[in-house]
Amino acid sequence: MTAPTARRVEPSVEVPISVTVNGEAVEAVVPARQLLADFLREELRLTGTHVGCEQGICGACTINLDGEPVRSCIMLAAQVDGSAITTVEGLSSEGLSPLQQAFKDNHGLQCGFCTPGFLMTLSTVDPDEYPGEEGIREAISGNLCRCTGYGGILQAVRTAWNRPQDA
Amino acid sequence: MKPPPFAYCRPHSLDEALEFLAEHGDEARPLAGGQSLVPMLNHRLARPEVLVDIGAVGELQRMERDESGWLIGAMVTQRRVERDGTEGCQLLRLAMPFIGHRQIRARGTVGGSIAHADPAAELPAVALTLDATMVAASLDGEREIPASTFFAGPYMNSLEDGEILSHVIFPMAPPSTRCSFREFARRKGDFAVAGVAAAVGFDDGSVTAARLTAFAVGSNPVRLAAAEAAVAGRRLDEAALTETAEAAAAEIEPWEDIHGSPQYRRQLVAALLRRALQEVAP
Ligand SMILES: Cc1cc2nc3c(=O)[nH]c(=O)nc-3n(C[C@H](O)[C@H](O)[C@H](O)COP(=O)(O)OP(=O)(O)OC[C@H]3O[C@@H](n4cnc5c(N)ncnc54)[C@H](O)[C@@H]3O)c2cc1C
Ligand code: FES
Ligand code: FES
User: Fold this and answer.
1) What number is the ipTM of this complex?
2) Which pLDDT tens digit goes with each residue over B224-234?
3) d(CA A74, CA A71)
4) Are residues B15 and B100 in the same domain?
């Protein structure tokens, strides 16, 4: 983490970063002001990460950063130097992951705009930390959906997490 | 909804971070978890020339316990406190789940929330209730600031230019202390419309010392001195609950905003405090 020998680097409007994205090493020089969501979408063309509100509220831009779900719209690309990121594109190398399949089977999406955010939150957290039906609601409380009314999403999570279906 | 231009640096030691802040004066700003600052940049409510990212400063990541209390480095994330807990300092952990959402707590820091001094934030209320000490670092050394004087108005703290909040010391409560944290918000994860924190010591069923705080009712969290006096020495029977809640409602001077009128907030504080005291009653 802290490299005691690290040389002092003056403030700059261009920042070199190295980051692992979906298992691949990426080296880039990013504008200091560039949001991580924009770096993923516009530089890496990983447009599965959606941008809804750009103020941390809707959750559409959620990614896995070093094992934690985070909002990529309120982080700078410059801040992820040395980190590992998974986006929705990295959830499965072939076909759909079980979580994605559960969303498909249970009508967990309509327009699909919010879906990458839900998938990234749910695939990153530990289900054991969110027991019961109340736990599922807590786990998805940081993601908003304007279409489904959440019923299909709850059903998809119950399926993916092997929880009772009739809750 | 994009940040204005700025220069960015990511120092690896506290001294280096302090040097950058000193060199760039009030044009520079520390960047912690960014969960308040980056939205402010996106909205162009903040336009710093230089952002000093303190995320790689090892000295600010400490989380240590000794017999006197918990030392929490400014860059310790809210998620880390939620996950690892703070044994012997129950109130701190109780407050965590109320801060935004899991995704916010994953990045948001203890120091960032306290420095930001949002009137409706949970951590400043916890700091005030527990008489925490904020330790500010500058090139001249360290300075201790008690929670009672740290918060200086809505979104204002009493740090000087060139100072970084280095860590916060949350004193260990006596073992008989029981704590409760309660707030009301329209939706899970929203900022509170009003909230209370309580740390109450007991001896043989009677209150020895009560530390009671209300937040989201004014510029900064406030200690409920009249309510603390009303409950001191008493058993938490029906009369004590009612009189303490009434004292709290009477002593606060809540503000009015789109989320609630002063009268509504008085009633909320009374109801929340009553429930908090019921919860801690032995
Ligand atoms: C959707 C959403 C919901 C939220 N809900 C809540 C909530 O319910 N309750 C709540 O309390 N908060 C909430 N927050 C805010 C969150 O808790 C922030 O993490 C916190 O307020 C700021 O911490 P940070 O580490 O992100 O700081 P930053 O955003 O990086 O910094 C905030 C301010 O503090 C200054 N600063 C940061 N660290 C230091 C330091 N060590 N020394 C000196 N100055 C410093 C910065 O310069 C900046 O001015 C929410 C945020 C979002 C986006
Ligand atoms: S776009 Fe990031 S939270 Fe809405
Ligand atoms: S499916 Fe349309 S917003 Fe959720």
Assistant:
1) 0.94
2) 999 999 999 99
3) 6
4) no
Number of domains observed in the structure of chain B: 3
Residue B1 lies in a domain: no
pTM of the model: 0.96
B130-174 pLDDT per residue, tens: 999 999 999 999 999 999 999 999 999 999 999 999 999 999 988
CATH assignment at residue B38:
3.30.43.10
3-state SS of B217-267 is: CCCCCEECHHHHHHHCCCECCHHHHHHHHHHHHHHCCCCCECCECHHHHHH
Interface touch B5/A13, C-beta < 8 Å: yes
Alpha carbon of A166: minimum distance to chain B alpha carbons (Å): 24
Option in A2, A139, A142 nearest B56 (CB): A2
A63 and A86 in contact (C-beta within 8 Å)? yes
Q: What's B152's domain CATH number?
A: 3.30.465.10
Q: For a pocket test of ligand 1, which of B20, B40, B52, B99 has the largest count of ligand atoms closer than 8 A to its C-beta?
A: B99
Min Cα distance B231 → chain A (Å) is 35
Within this chain, do residues B194 and B256 fall inside the same structural domain, yes or no? yes
Give the whole-angstrom CA distance, residue B15 versus residue B28. Answer: 15
Domain ranges, residue B207 = 179-280
Asked if the Cβ–Cβ distance from B101 to A59 is below 8 Å, we say: yes
Do B166 and B183 lie in a common domain?
no
Which CATH number is B188's domain given? 3.30.390.50
